[in-house]
Amino acid sequence: MKAISSFIISIATCSTAESFSPVSFSAGNYNRGDVVDNLKPLFATVETGTPTGFIDNELRGAAMKLHTRSQSSEGEVHEAKREPYVTTMEDYLRFLVDSQLVYRVFEDIIRIPELSPELSAFVDTGLERTEPLETDIQFIVKEYEMIRPPVGQIGTKYAEELRGFAVKGKGCVPELMCHYYNHYFAHTAGGRMIGKQMASLLLDNKTLEFYKWDGNINKIKADVKISIEELAASWSREEKDLCVEATAGAFQGGGMLNAYLMGVNSLE
Fold first, then answer.
1. Are 202 and 89 a contacting pair, CB within 8 Å?
2. Which of 76, 116, 132, 199 pairs with 235 at a CA distance of 20 to 30 A?
3. What are the residue ranges of helices labelled H in the chain?
4. Per-residue pLDDT for 75 more than 90?
5. pLDDT at position 69, please?
6. How confident is the model at residue 74 (pLDDT cuts 50, 70, 90)?
7. Does the structure show a pLDDT above 70 at 230?
8. Does residue 244 fall inside a structural domain?
């Protein structure tokens, strides 16, 4: 069996949502065992210029408030200190397995006929992650002679929450799109930085398929943002408020998955 390396991460908690705040790892090369202290936002996308549209004016603002001041100058959340933790390959594999379930649920919901045509624009956008994650999970299990873990409580809980939105019918679309935007766009930002550190410190510099996209990811994101803006333009003020107010829940769901990187394997 190949030796499994590990690295230490420092993580902040989001006290307002009673969950782990999304984190990413600072850029640069770290030796095995180094402590990564410079945490930056995972769920925010960096925008330049004058904000325009629903995403930049409302969704982004709600997300930035849920960061700490060390993550963003716009952050308003108290930063709790935590002891550094040594993340293992087992932790990472659990993170990938639970993440796959969450992405699969997103991708299944978007295809529900009863939620069309509102969600039709989000089918086969290029952001889909279920199949790449399956490739990666199988690679790690085989290459490092590991046993594939079942989906844990963390992934199951968030998946059930997302399915709960779908049961409500089209009235759930604004809240669901908040989760969709934050989850998928987070992965293209801070999530890729996490992947880079994992590749360097756990996987002999192999970049997993989870962190690759077919085509120009910036173009894919831009197209999806246009689709979200077009959808939001059809919403009432009340529906827009529902979307924005779902931001804390989106942070909580993604933050629970990130908790695997701290060795948290259950909700107990």
1. yes
2. 76
3. 53-54, 60-65, 89-110, 130-143, 153-167, 173-188, 190-201, 217-232, 237-245, 247-258
4. no
5. 63
6. low
7. yes
8. yes
What are the residues facing 19 on neighbouring strands? 14
Contact 152, 96 (CB under 8 A): no
Q: 202 CB contacts (<8 Å, ≥6 apart)?
A: 4, 5, 6, 7, 89, 92
Query: How many domains in the chain?
Result: 1
Q: Is 120 helix (H, G, I), strand (E, B) or coil?
A: helix
| Short-list 228, 255, 258, CA closest to 240 | 228
Residue 104: is its pLDDT beyond 50? yes
199 lies in some domain? yes
Q: What is the pTM of this model?
A: 0.81
Share of the chain above pLDDT 90, in %: 60
Contact 92, 260 (CB under 8 A): yes
Residue 192 lies in a domain: yes
Q: On the CB side of 164, how many CA atoms lie within 13 Å of its CA?
A: 9
Range(s) of the domain holding residue 115: 7-262
Q: What is the CATH number of the domain that holds 27?
A: 1.20.910.10
Other C-beta atoms within 10 Å of 157: how many?
A: 16
